[in-house]
């Protein structure tokens, strides 16, 4: 039986002992300062809890962003705040159950074949089963290939476009139509939508909100993970049932963070700068990897370069990169069993920080790689 892939903590330890400075390409957090906001504390915050559903200012800003960016008009009661997208993802199945939104016999959360681990973790937290949806050769989901016995037990379908880790763009309209046909709530993780390199950013709301939720992140669009603010929106009947359950559990973003988030959602210029920086980093990293013999795949979107490992062993390559060159990447097996032949590079640093270690990026041993292209 195969053991699990090495953890990020294990790889960080290996990198620290490599004799090289740590080069962390494992997380989708750009190595840039966050943008300034107008949300600093005035020193006169009300002595009370911030609204769990989000302040009116934040909800209006989120609705304004969706209207401005995607042409989608949502009522204020169809938008609510969360304490970061990951918090929402990890707790959604639990609150669907507590809100009475689980039809009889629906006990399975559908997740992408390769995906962010929080989807599976959230289902497990709520006591639901998970099933990885088949995908085509371009990593796009094919729920039409699900066994009927699985389809008929599906509670919700997680979609992530652009995909973490593969960078694929999903056929959102097709997936939403499938969900409505079979009574499966479609939940679209749109954290990386502003990092769409092929075409314009997309949302699952393009064909209406019935039976659809989407979650957005300030961590990615605005490079502000420290705020711990995001928002979810969509079908008002679902949002309205989730809000009181989340409030009762004490889930809320801080008042100052909500004000900062509202400011950032209303400002497109900082997001444009971050987009251009990200596009350059992704393209540069793909070129560097391929020049050194690595089988890198140019993503359609997102911060990540999904790369086939030499010899088909992503775990071994991740350990080798960390132990020999101080480079920390994520082994593909962390995103699903079919990812074990790959690693995920995060294009979060300028290429000048990476080129000196280009010798470690290709399929040859370290002594031969030192003369490779940089």
TrEMBL record:
Residues 42-348 form the Aminotransferase class I/classII large domain. InterPro entries: Aminotransferase_I/II_large (IPR004839), LL-DAP_aminotransferase (IPR050881), PyrdxlP-dep_Trfase (IPR015424), PyrdxlP-dep_Trfase_major (IPR015421), PyrdxlP-dep_Trfase_small (IPR015422). Pfam families: Aminotran_1_2 (PF00155). Residues 24-54 are annotated as: Disordered. It comes from the Bacteria. One of its GO terms (molecular function) is pyridoxal phosphate binding. Its cofactor is pyridoxal 5'-phosphate. Keywords: Aminotransferase, Transferase. This is Succinyldiaminopimelate transaminase. It comes from Micromonospora lupini str. Lupac 08. The lineage of its organism: Bacteria, Bacillati, Actinomycetota, Actinomycetes, Micromonosporales.
């Amino acid at each position: 039986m195969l053991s699990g892939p090495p953890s990020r903590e294990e790889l960080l330890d290996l990198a620290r002992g490599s004799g090289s400075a740590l080069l962390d390409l494992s997380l989708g957090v750009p190595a840039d300062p966050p943008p300034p906001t107008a949300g600093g504390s005035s020193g006169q915050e009300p002595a009370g809890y911030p609204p769990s559903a989000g302040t009116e200012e934040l909800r209006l800003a989120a609705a304004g962003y969706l209207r401005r960016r995607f042409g989608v008009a949502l009522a204020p009661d169809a938008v609510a705040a969360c304490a970061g997208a990951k918090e929402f993802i990890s707790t959604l199945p639990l609150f669907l159950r507590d809100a009475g939104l689980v039809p009889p016999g629906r006990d399975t959360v559908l997740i992408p074949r390769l995906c962010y681990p929080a989807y599976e973790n959230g289902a497990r937290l709520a006591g639901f089963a998970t099933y990885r949806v088949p995908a085509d050769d371009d990593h796009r989901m094919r729920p039409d290939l699900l066994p009927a016995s699985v389809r008929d037990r599906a509670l919700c379908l997680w979609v992530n476009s652009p995909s973490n880790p593969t960078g694929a763009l999903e056929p959102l309209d097709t997936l939403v139509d499938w969900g409505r046909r079979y009574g499966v709530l479609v939940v679209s993780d749109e954290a990386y939508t502003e990092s769409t390199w092929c075409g314009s950013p997309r949302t699952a709301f393009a064909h209406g909100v019935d039976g659809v939720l989407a979650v957005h992140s300030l961590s990615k669009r605005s490079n502000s993970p420290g705020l711990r603010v995001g928002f979810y929106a969509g079908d008002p009947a679902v949002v309205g049932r989730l809000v009181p359950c989340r409030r009762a559990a004490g889930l809320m973003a801080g008042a100052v963070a909500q004000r900062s988030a509202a400011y950032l959602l209303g400002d497109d210029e900082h997001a444009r700068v971050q987009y251009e920086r990200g596009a350059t980093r992704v393209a540069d990293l793909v070129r560097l990897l391929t020049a050194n013999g690595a089988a890198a795949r140019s993503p359609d979107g997102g911060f990540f370069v999904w790369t086939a490992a030499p010899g088909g062993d992503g775990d071994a390559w991740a350990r080798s990169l960390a132990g020999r060159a101080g480079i920390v990447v994520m082994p593909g097996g962390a995103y699903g069993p079919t990812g074990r032949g790959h690693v995920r590079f995060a294009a979060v640093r300028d290429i000048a920080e990476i080129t000196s270690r280009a010798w470690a990026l290709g399929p040859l041993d370290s002594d031969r790689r030192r003369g490779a292209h940089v």
